[in-house]
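Quiz preparation item.
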């Protein structure tokens, strides 16, 4: 099926953001693992796997609509130097992904591509309700109980 070019272009741009998230989560998860924060490692590695799933859906949809996915493009990564910076940077990335998803959802609605729109709405829900919300909670916990207590709870 041949999709609308602006939908395909939007999906390709989303793929860049998702693959960038995969890379950032990969580096952060390995940093957590190296520092002995096993709970953070497990959660962020899970987020990395979720982002791989999102990327897989986007690639499949781009191909279905007649496009060619570009898996080489990346946004600049935000690698933190410590746990609060890493969580904050991951949250900024999730906010960027949510903004991009909303923009492409609007394009899909304009072009009446409701199947792609529905797929992206599911990704947006996961981005906002699972990824971003969890990161906001962690930053709130650091503020509420202090960084040393938070870090102790992540071993």
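Solution:
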């Amino acid at each position: 099926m041949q999709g609308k070019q602006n939908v395909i272009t939007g999906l390709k741009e989303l793929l860049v953001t998702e693959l960038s998230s995969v890379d950032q989560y990969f580096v952060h998860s390995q940093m957590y693992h190296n520092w002995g924060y096993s709970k953070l490692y497990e959660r962020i590695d899970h987020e990395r796997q979720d982002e791989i799933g999102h990327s897989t859906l986007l690639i499949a949809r781009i191909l279905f609509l007649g496009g060619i996915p570009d898996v080489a493009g990346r946004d600049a990564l935000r690698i933190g130097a410590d746990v609060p910076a890493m969580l904050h940077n991951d949250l900024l990335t999730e906010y960027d992904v949510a903004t991009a998803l909303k923009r492409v959802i609007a394009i899909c609605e304009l072009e009446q591509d409701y199947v792609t729109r529905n797929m992206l709405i599911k990704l947006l829900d996961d981005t906002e309700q699972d990824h971003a919300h969890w990161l906001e909670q962690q930053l709130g916990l650091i503020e509420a109980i202090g960084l040393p207590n938070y870090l102790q709870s992540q071993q």
